[in-house]
Amino acid sequence: MKKLIPIALVAGLSLAFAGSVVAATHCIRAGGWGTGLLENFASFMANAAMKNQAKAWGGDNVKISKISEKCEWKTLAFECTAFARACK
User: Fold this and answer.
1) CB of 82 within 8 A of CB of 68?
2) What is the model's pTM?
3) Which domain holds residue 32?
4) Does residue 31 sit in helix, strand or coil?
5) Cys staple from 34: which of 21, 46, 76, 88, with CB 3.0 to 4.6 Å?
């Protein structure tokens, strides 16, 4: 019985540590898209869509990394895409 207690303790701590590592690295690549006649408006819409996706996935406490954004003029308006890493 005395030999089982240390083995069970080590096994339990190992599982707890493994679970915390997996939870700490749980991230997604969130993205959004926006259009507008003004580049600022299209950029704002893309950022808002990206943040909405991240918060829908991870709740209000989600952490968003540096945002990667690309905007270009298409036929009648600007189209912007925004991406960032979101972690719980």
Assistant:
1) yes
2) 0.70
3) 27-87
4) strand
5) 46
Count of structural domains within the chain? 1
| Tens-digit pLDDT profile for residues 35-63 | 999 999 999 999 999 999 999 999 999 99
CB distance 51 to 70 below 8 Å: no
Q: Is residue 12 part of a domain?
A: no
Contacts for 48 with CB less than 8 Å, ≥ 6 apart: 32, 34
- Cα separation of 39 and 45, whole Å? 10
User: Residue 46, exposed/middle/buried by CB under 10 A (0-12, 13-18, 19+)?
Assistant: buried
Q: Does residue 20 form part of some domain?
A: no
